[in-house]
Write a structure and sequence with these properties.
By secondary structure, this protein is mainly beta. It has four domains: 112 residues, Immunoglobulins (Immunoglobulin-like, Sandwich), CATH 2.60.40; 113 residues, Immunoglobulins (Immunoglobulin-like), CATH 2.60.40.10; 111 residues, Immunoglobulin-like (Sandwich); 99 residues, Immunoglobulins (Immunoglobulin-like). Helix content is 6%, strand content 55%. The protein is built from one helix and 35 strands. The strands form eight sheets. Strands 9, 10, 12, 14, 15 and 16 form a six-stranded antiparallel beta sheet that branches. A hairpin with a 5-residue loop joins strand 7 and strand 8. The chain is rod-shaped. The relative contact order is 0.08.
């Protein structure tokens, strides 16, 4: 009997030790539970794909409110415990979870929500532990920042010739341009904490507007995006054009600016100058003139000057009475300063008939046509009239004669020929025979020519006048004077 008790005791001891070894066997063969996370549904997160890295750094914009962490746990045990922690006054809760069990393992998926309430560094820890005290930890160093979710917009027109504006951030702008400039460039810059913004633009007053996509630049920043670009406004009429530019971010916050573009027309100024012509009384640029000119001189020259906001204005010119008016294009010059152009040139008028020729210069503008009208009275040269007389009074021991001439100008005003040189041909006769000849010229219309006369006899003088334009008078004869 005593021997039997010993046997039973031995069996119990063996069984006892055998049970302990089995439990140790399962503990030693147990694998560590597997944990992986992502933050795909948090807009500002960089953790978009599942990862099992034990230490991760991420960013979070406080305006998003909730930092959502998706987790996935896989383990051969069916009793895995999950814990989560956050510091610096933030809260953290389990939003949802679901369990899928198979023959040899269990998978748990869910969402944890961390809600920071201050900016700065927050440590978020997720720990899972199986029944055999094997665990897995993932720590997230969460950099919480606050960015203004309202997009920042700035617009500018400084790239245009004649612009009076400067780059203004977040402020409406007003600028004025000439219609002749054509397309107006409006530069813009957008700063937002999310690239998923909506950009719109439109304009009023029958103008076209489009975006110059060839110069658009998108620059990602650490927690934002910067976009620079350009709009092209092409007015088709004068007046105010309001360009509305709107940026709306992904949560509906909106920034809107206005570019008030006034399209004006600066009327052209036309002046003319006939100073290159003989007999002109106008020596500078004037709005119009009325002058006289001799047909025999040929081409009448008119210098013109146009000051306009268009470097290539729609310029035309006309004349009447069969006059041929042409431009000497080799004489044209263009100077542009501050968007204002000065065009200077030379017109040539060739008259066919004697007449008052009207010269008209026109510049077509959006607001109407600007016109300069001048006249030049072109007449053929008249033959001068010559008068001569032989005077019998003593003059320094002799006699003298006087010659006068009258120029038959078409307006009966010889002053038009103030610079004309009258040439006189003189012949002195004694007793019917030519004694001497003499030629002289003068810019006056009356002069005395002194000649000493010797001896007795019957004296008379013949004279003829001519001008430099081809007018030649008939010979005229003075009365006979007898000296005895």
């Amino acid at each position: 009997m005593k021997k039997l008790n010993y046997v039973l005791l031995s069996v119990m001891i063996i069984l006892t030790f055998s049970c302990d070894k089995r439990e140790d066997f399962f503990a030693e063969s147990n694998q560590e539970p597997f944990l992986e996370i992502n933050a795909l549904n948090t807009p500002s997160s960089y953790i978009k794909d599942f990862t099992s890295v034990e230490s991760i750094t991420d960013s979070f914009n406080l305006v998003n409110n909730d930092y959502l962490i998706n987790f996935r746990i896989t383990d051969e045990s069916k009793d895995v415990k999950i814990e989560y922690f956050v510091d610096n006054g933030a809260t953290i809760t389990l939003v949802s979870s679901s369990v899928t069990t198979t023959k040899d393992k269990q998978e748990i998926t869910g969402v944890i929500k961390a809600v920071p309430n201050t900016v700065g560094l927050h440590n978020v820890d997720i720990v899972i532990t199986d029944p055999y005290n094997k665990s897995k930890r993932i720590s997230i160093k969460l950099n919480v920042y606050l960015r203004n979710a309202v997009p920042i917009l700035s617009i500018s027109t400084v790239n245009n010739v004649g612009s009076n504006n400067q780059t203004l951030v977040g402020i409406n702008i007003t600028d004025t341009f000439s219609f002749q400039q054509g397309t107006i460039l409006i530069d813009y810059q957008i700063m937002d904490d999310n690239a998923a913004y909506n950009f719109n633009f439109n304009t009023t007053n029958a103008a076209s507007i489009n975006e110059n996509l060839g110069v658009k630049i998108i620059t990602p920043q650490t927690h934002s995006v910067v976009v620079t670009g350009q709009l092209r406004l092409t007015p088709t009429q004068l007046g105010l054009h309001v360009v509305t530019i709107t940026v709306t971010d992904d949560i509906g916050q909106q920034t809107q600016l206005f570019a008030n573009i006034y399209i004006m027309d600066i009327p052209a100024v036309i002046t003319v100058n006939p100073a290159l012509n003989t007999f002109t009384t106008t020596s500078s640029y004037v709005s119009s003139f009325s002058e006289m000119f001799l047909f025999e001189l040929g081409v009448y020259k008119i210098k013109y000057r146009i000051v306009d906001d268009n470097i290539s204005p729609n310029f035309t010119f006309t004349s009447n009475n069969s006059g041929v008016l042409t431009e000497d294009l080799s004489a044209r010059t263009v100077t542009t300063i501050g968007g204002i152009s000065t065009i200077e040139g030379l017109l040539n008028l060739s008259a066919v008939i004697e007449a008052v020729h009207t010269i008209q210069l026109n510049v077509a503008e959006p607001g109407g046509t600007v016109t300069s009208t001048s006249t030049v009275d072109i007449r053929k040269n008249k033959i001068p009239t010559c008068n001569v007389g032989l005077l019998g009074s003593d003059y320094v021991g002799g006699k003298y004669y006087s010659v006068t001439s009258t120029v038959n100008s078409y307006n009966s005003d010889p002053a038009i020929f103030n610079d004309a040189i009258i040439n006189y041909d003189l012949e002195l006769y004694k007793n019917g025979s030519l004694v001497t000849t003499h030629s002289t010229n003068s810019s006056v219309y009356k002069f005395n020519d002194v000649r000493t006369i010797y001896g007795t006899g019957n004296y008379y003088v013949k004279a003829r006048c001519n001008d430099k334009y081809g007018g030649i008078s008939l010979w005229v004869t003075s009365t006979v004077v007898t000296i005895f």
